[in-house]
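User: Hi! I have a protein structure encoded as tokens and I'd like to know what sequence might fold into it. I'm fairly new to this, so please keep things simple.
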């Protein structure tokens, strides 16, 4: 088991180093001078030179990369030119919104999708299966921003149960903050639940056709025991893969929904930084999100070994 963990951690660290080189190179291939791009074409040459000195752009590329990577290791992401604050402070504020939102959305989608996928697989070819997967198909096809607007109209404008947008901050209390995240979480959870339900059904259908499932049934085990004790655990590998991908997406890819609900999250921060040409923020946040994706994939790989011990010696 320790060898398996060591190999996965080493692979993750290698991927992280290569990803950091790619993210750093993105700044170098931007047409023109990055400092002038950030300041605008009306900036004077003296202003450009001062910013180049602050960003270390006058140094050789190797030293620039090592200085930037060393700052990342120290959790020093640099200073935002637009906001005039440390990037780590910006990230901390936005992560306090995006991380709970991602966790709530993932929890909602999992609670709905896995039982729905198991239910559809246990009734393969019947009306219940067709209705369940038809609903999942509609959920996949429905744009989350349109569903978000529908939720705002029903629950915020018509019923007035939750706020239509904005985030009061956790300092205002846990319940007011959670109320502001309920509708965005539902808007994000719908398409993710639809995808996860279809993957769960497909994995369960494949497992239910295996010989050991027929043997368990022949021994007199109940249908519930066969589904939950034997089939589900062996069907979890693709389900865990999708869960990992969805969490990474929910953490980094919620720009549209965050803008619809006016939430100050990471996705909106990246969007604003790109619009304002704040390359320091863009580069640092992208690298942070890449690291989060690599970490999630590592945890998913480790969960494979916990679910199926046979994989520990094969990876």
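Assistant: Happy to help. Inverse folding works backwards from shape to sequence: for each of the 315 positions I chose a residue that suits the local structure. Here it is:
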């Amino acid at each position: 088991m320790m060898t398996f963990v060591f190999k996965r951690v080493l692979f993750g660290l290698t991927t992280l180093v290569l990803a950091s080189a790619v993210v750093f190179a993105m700044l170098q291939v931007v047409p023109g001078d990055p400092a002038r791009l950030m300041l605008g074409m009306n900036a004077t040459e003296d202003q450009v030179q001062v910013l180049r000195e602050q960003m270390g752009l006058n140094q050789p590329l190797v030293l620039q990369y090592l200085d930037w990577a060393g700052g990342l290791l120290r959790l020093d992401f640099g200073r935002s030119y637009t906001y005039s604050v440390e990037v780590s402070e910006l990230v901390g504020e936005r992560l306090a919104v995006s991380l709970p939102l991602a966790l709530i959305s993932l929890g909602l989608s999992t609670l709905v999708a896995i039982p729905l996928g198991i239910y559809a697989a246990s009734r393969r070819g019947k009306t219940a299966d067709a209705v369940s997967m038809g609903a999942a198909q509609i959920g996949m096809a429905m744009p989350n921003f349109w569903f978000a607007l529908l939720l705002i109209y029903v629950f915020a404008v018509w019923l007035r149960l939750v706020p239509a947008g904005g985030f009061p901050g956790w300092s205002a209390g846990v319940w007011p903050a959670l109320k502001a995240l309920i509708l965005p979480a539902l808007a994000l959870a719908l398409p993710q639940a639809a995808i996860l339900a279809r993957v769960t059904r497909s994995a369960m259908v494949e497992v239910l056709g295996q010989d050991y499932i027929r043997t368990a049934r022949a021994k007199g085990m109940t249908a519930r025991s066969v589904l939950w004790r034997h089939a589900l655990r062996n069907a979890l590998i693709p389900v865990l893969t999708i869960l990992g991908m969805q969490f990474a997406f929910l953490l980094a890819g919620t720009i549209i929904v965050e803008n619809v609900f006016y939430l100050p999250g990471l996705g909106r921060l990246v969007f604003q930084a790109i619009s304002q040409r704040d390359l320091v923020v863009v580069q640092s946040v992208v690298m942070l999100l890449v690291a989060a994706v690599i970490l999630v994939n590592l945890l998913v790989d480790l969960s494979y070994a916990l679910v199926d011990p046979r994989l520990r010696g094969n990876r």
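A useful reference point when you look it over: The longest helix spans residues 87-122. Feel free to ask if any position seems puzzling.
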